[in-house]
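Here comes an entry:

___
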Amino acid sequence: MSDTQIEPTPKADAGVKHMTRSEAREFYVFLAKLALFVLILRSFIAAPFSIPSESMLPRLLVGDYLIVGKWPYGYSRHSLPFSVPLIPGRIFSTLPERGDVVVFKAPPSNKVDYIKRVIGLPGDRIQMRAGQLFLNGKAIPKTRQPDLVVPTSPNTHCFAPEFERADPSGGSACHYPRYQETLPNGRQYNVLDLADSPADTTDVYTVPAGHLFMMGDNRDNSLDSRFPAELGGGIGFVPVENLVGKALFTVFSTDGSANWVLPWTWFTAARWQRIGEGF
């Protein structure tokens, strides 16, 4: 009796290979569609943004993660990833309102994303006098509020030692003097006034056509439109074309104490009460 070997027929083997190629092609098509969807979403609808500095205290803390809407002010090349120059100028352009918190490409390099509050529109005159904001010659009402208290953490360090105090839990917290400003359009927001700084008293800035005047809410710890773009860190007047989008709401916040190899710390480090805060 002879041994009999059963081998796959050529037709069956070809079918298996054909099925494998078909599945691979479908997978790559799916990845391409997914990449296109994400590209459209991030370019024209919304994108995430993380807070790297304390220049927007008290509203924004280091470790906050935001959703930025791309549609409110129209689109330019800076709406696209890496500012790919596919959009000439700005299309569907709409000016922000005074008081909006916006993300933009910071002059002079126009490469780094900054987040600040819009204070001046084209033609506005802006001045600081002894820490008081003036808009078109009129003082912006500024009223004292309860101190901002922020627990110290890897993401939060006090501006100066005199602001740090012990708290009942055995840790410490930063206590900052907080004030509320009210713009002529009724927009209210809080700012910090931490020290006497050179930017507390300025010349009058007249915002050119096609530009905006930006300020950080942490007035003594923000390099913004009060500082010329030619100086290290200053941004001067910001072209409207540089707008990336409008801050919409906070989606997550962490105090920076999480350890990736200790999963439970992912939850203890979260600032849950900040999630969902709008602008």
